């Protein structure tokens, strides 16, 4: 078979798989872009762009270079190598090295031959010689196109190894089944497809789902950026721990701001609201009495009551707008008042105030849910205490606390949206509603299991784990989608088609899982919370995706799987348990192509 035909067959066999993988992942991340969190937007856009370009490069540049390498390999197998085990000649395999050393070089290929398929038919494969697979190129051997019989007959691939090894086979056969193919296509069906295997699989799934649901009820929301964004053993982390223990580092400083008074009134007219702010805020169950609430207005009144004549005061306060402003400016010039000069803002002519600030402290931080309630409570109390001055509570920590409040709704919205989008894609690619629904069910089970696993792994629900829950939709669909498609193209009973799906694509799915594990195993020893969380959740996600895609889904398909694309009679698929046999000749025409999974 010529290089051009081999490349076309490669794309025909693996193109659907890499399209399913790339398209579902791309859509899952694009959906994640429509969120209110800027960090998640950037992450989703970056990963979606990467997936898109990887897909483009796979079907263009990679296939082009693969074709060039295949032509080089073909020339080497025909005896046109430069020398013994030359990397540019015969790569890791030798043909007839003794003859190759004395053989003349073949004429070089032109650019046209390399790019337009000239290498496919420029030379006729020389006949085999005794003592080796290859043959010496003979200039007298006429150059003519390969005949149709030669073109259609596949070459012998059992190539001798260059370097003798004390173990393993002496010949390498690339068409022999791999260990993962044997595991998924031979050994696994013998365990899970008999009736007793199905019972065991359902019992394991029920137990796992029960543990996941229990974990879901125990997971709580928490995020500590100061501590978790630092690696274990950091001196800065130790400093934060000392601050939290002895100096109130676990408390949140909250500033209460008042704004410009309504038209026709002034801060002098609204002194009751200024006086009510400290008492109202300290009465909250989330606010602390120590350190005390710092109110510039309370200290100002203490100064006025101490240095001004009682006759000039009304209920212990300045008696007029002019006195209020004059005495306030006077107090700010004293050593005590100078510390609060930045807490008040005057209008341009200094006849009234435009804004002011008071400061209080919360109780010790508990968790994210507590922080959300604190934020809601102090905002409500600040507005209630100073309605005419538009009282507003603010803290730099509210940036994180508001994120805590958003993450729950965003998780539900993004996960559901991504699942719906992926379901639509699978519906289009599988062209079968029951099959697409089964794949969607596997996605839901993976996400539920992952969420419950967080509690067992001592992780909390936060912005970091939220990202993994969203991308889990795109990752888990790869494993189930490939198996479902292989099931749909197979013929025979449901039992036979489930076995065929595992034999046809199961090994490649396991290879994809293994490469994913290799990518994340480097995070296993990380001491940073973010990397530890990514490792735990991604590792668990791959395990869950493999279980539901390669074990649980085939069992479900063998029982309630939809009819095949190639079914001659719909009634033929009704019996799912009538046979535990391995598919035979019914799937031979389908087995001619082998899918390649890109996970």
From TrEMBL:
**Which residue numbers delimit the SSD domain?**
1-68
Oxidoreductase as a keyword? no
- The UniProt annotation puts the region (Disordered) at 104-157, 566-599
Return the protein name. SSD domain-containing protein
Q: Which family does it belong to?
A: Belongs to the patched family.
Molecular function GO labels: transmembrane transporter activity
Q: Which UniProt keywords apply?
A: Membrane, Transmembrane, Transmembrane helix
> What's a single GO CC term here?
membrane
Q: Name one Pfam family in it.
A: Sterol-sensing
Superkingdom of origin: Eukaryota
Which stretches are transmembrane? Answer: 7-34, 46-68, 463-488, 509-531, 537-560
């Amino acid at each position: 078979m010529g290089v051009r035909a081999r490349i076309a067959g490669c794309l025909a066999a693996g193109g659907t798989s890499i399209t399913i993988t790339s398209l579902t992942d791309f859509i899952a991340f694009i959906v994640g872009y429509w969120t209110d969190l800027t960090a998640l937007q950037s992450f989703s856009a970056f990963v979606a762009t990467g997936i898109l370009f990887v897909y483009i490069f796979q079907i263009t540049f990679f296939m082009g270079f693969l074709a060039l390498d295949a032509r080089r390999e073909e020339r080497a197998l025909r005896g046109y190598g430069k020398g013994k085990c030359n990397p540019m000649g015969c790569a890791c395999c030798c043909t007839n090295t003794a003859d190759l050393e004395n053989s003349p070089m073949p004429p070089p290929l032109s650019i046209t031959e390399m790019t337009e398929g000239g290498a496919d038919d420029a030379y006729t494969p020389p006949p085999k010689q005794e003592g080796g697979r290859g043959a010496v190129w003979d200039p007298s051997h006429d150059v003519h196109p390969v005949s149709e019989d030669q073109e259609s007959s596949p070459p012998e691939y059992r190539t001798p190894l260059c370097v003798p090894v004390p173990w393993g086979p002496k010949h390498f056969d690339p068409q022999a089944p791999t260990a993962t193919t044997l595991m998924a296509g031979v050994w696994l069906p013998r365990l899970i497809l008999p009736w007793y295997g199905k019972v065991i699989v359902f019992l394991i799934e029920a137990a796992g789902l029960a543990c996941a649901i229990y974990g879901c009820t125990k997971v709580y929301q928490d995020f500590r950026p100061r501590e978790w964004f630092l690696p274990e053993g950091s001196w800065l982390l130790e400093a934060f721990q000392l601050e939290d223990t002895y100096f109130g580092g676990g408390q949140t400083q909250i500033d209460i701001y008042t704004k410009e008074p309504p038209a026709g009134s002034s801060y002098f007219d609204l002194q009751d609201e200024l006086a009510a702010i400290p008492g109202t805020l300290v009465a909250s169950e989330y606010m602390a009495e120590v350190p005390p609430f710092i109110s510039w207005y309370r200290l100002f009144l203490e100064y006025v009551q101490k240095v001004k004549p009682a006759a000039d005061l009304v209920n212990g306060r300045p008696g007029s707008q002019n006195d209020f402003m004059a005495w306030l400016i006077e107090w700010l010039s004293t050593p005590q008042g100078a510390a609060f000069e930045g807490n008040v803002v005057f209008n341009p002519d200094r006849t009234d105030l435009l804004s002011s600030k008071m400061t209080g402290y919360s109780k010790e931080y508990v968790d994210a849910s507590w922080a959300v309630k604190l934020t809601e409570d102090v905002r409500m109390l600040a507005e209630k205490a100073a309605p005419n001055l538009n009282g507003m509570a603010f803290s730099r920590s509210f940036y994180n606390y508001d994120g805590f409040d958003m993450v729950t709704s965003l998780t539900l919205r993004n996960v559901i949206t991504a699942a719906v989008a992926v379901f639509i894609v699978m519906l289009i690619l599988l062209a079968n509603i029951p099959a697409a629904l089964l794949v969607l069910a596997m996605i839901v089970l993976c996400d539920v299991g992952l969420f419950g696993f967080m509690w067992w792994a001592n992780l909390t629900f936060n912005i970091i784990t939220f990202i993994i829950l969203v991308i889990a939709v795109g990752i888990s669909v790869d494993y189930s989608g490939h198996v479902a498609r292989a099931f749909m193209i197979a013929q025979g009973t449901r039992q036979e088609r489930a076995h065929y799906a595992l034999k046809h694509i199961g090994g490649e799915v396991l290879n994809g899982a293994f490469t994913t594990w290799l990518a994340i195993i480097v995070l296993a020893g990380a001491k940073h919370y973010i990397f530890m969380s990514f490792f735990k959740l991604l590792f668990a996600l791959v395990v869950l995706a493999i279980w539901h895609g390669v074990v649980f889904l085939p069992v479900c398909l063998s029982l309630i799987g939809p009819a095949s694309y190639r079914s001659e009679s719909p009634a033929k698929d009704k019996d799912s348990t009538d046979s535990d046999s391995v598919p035979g000749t019914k799937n031979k025409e389908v087995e001619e192509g082998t899918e390649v999974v890109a996970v």
